[in-house]
User: Which sequence fits this backbone?
């Protein structure tokens, strides 16, 4: 079977500060994030997972996460930038704090976090859930369909909001329910698998963080 290993990037300065980064904002990883990424690598090494290929969002926080992770795996893994893995385009929310966005755009923020089918980003000049899934899903399916061996492990390093929506979509979850299991934690691991290359895929793990050192708090998950 083909397995997809989805990793959210390590925690950044803006994550800690409660500030939206989105598709165009960015900030450095926190020092402790490197230890968490190494802990993820140790877990994958312990499980003996061998990756055929790794794909990463073009943003710096994901590329730094990917390089750190691959440097600590006991194998050589080809790495490709996959633009489709870029984070949600949040438009006017990007660069602003959660509190500022809640004050300015309470309806949009509530829908984004809790009711994806009602999320209308036009006032924000942002990206909708259908638009996000339309750009993310076909490249991922193409990669899966290209596994002619039928037993590849494929690593994808991306972002919390967009990966959470993508994973749920690949599982067959309808848009109104994309947030039913909450968000993804920094440096977390989620795994899907397929035996026949067809949607929906099957869930193996969702937002696994048991291997990470330290405690989690509200700023770790989106």
Assistant:
């Amino acid at each position: 079977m083909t397995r997809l290993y989805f990793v959210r990037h390590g925690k950044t300065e803006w994550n800690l500060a409660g500030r939206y980064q989105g598709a165009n904002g960015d900030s450095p990883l926190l020092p402790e994030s490197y230890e968490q990424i190494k802990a993820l690598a140790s877990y994958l090494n312990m499980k003996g997972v061998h990756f055929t290929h790794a794909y990463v969002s073009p943003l710096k926080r994901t590329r730094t996460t990917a390089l750190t992770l691959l440097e600590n795996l006991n194998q050589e893994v080809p790495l490709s930038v996959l633009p489709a893995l870029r984070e949600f385009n949040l438009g006017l929310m990007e660069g602003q704090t959660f509190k500022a966005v809640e004050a300015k755009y309470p309806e949009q923020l509530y829908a984004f976090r809790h009711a994806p089918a009602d999320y209308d980003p036009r006032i924000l000049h942002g990206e909708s859930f259908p638009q996000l899934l339309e750009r993310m899903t076909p490249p991922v399916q193409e990669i899966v369909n290209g596994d002619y061996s039928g037993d590849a492990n494929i690593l994808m390093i991306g972002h919390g909001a967009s990966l959470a929506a993508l994973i749920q979509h690949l599982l067959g979850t309808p848009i109104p329910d994309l947030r039913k299991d909450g968000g993804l934690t920094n440096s977390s691991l989620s795994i899907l698998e397929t035996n026949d290359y067809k949607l929906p895929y099957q869930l193996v793990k969702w937002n696994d963080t048991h291997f990470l050192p330290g405690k989690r708090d509200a700023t770790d998950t989106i």
Residues 31-47 form the longest helix (17 residues). The chain has seven helices and six strands. The two ends are 30 Å apart (CA to CA).
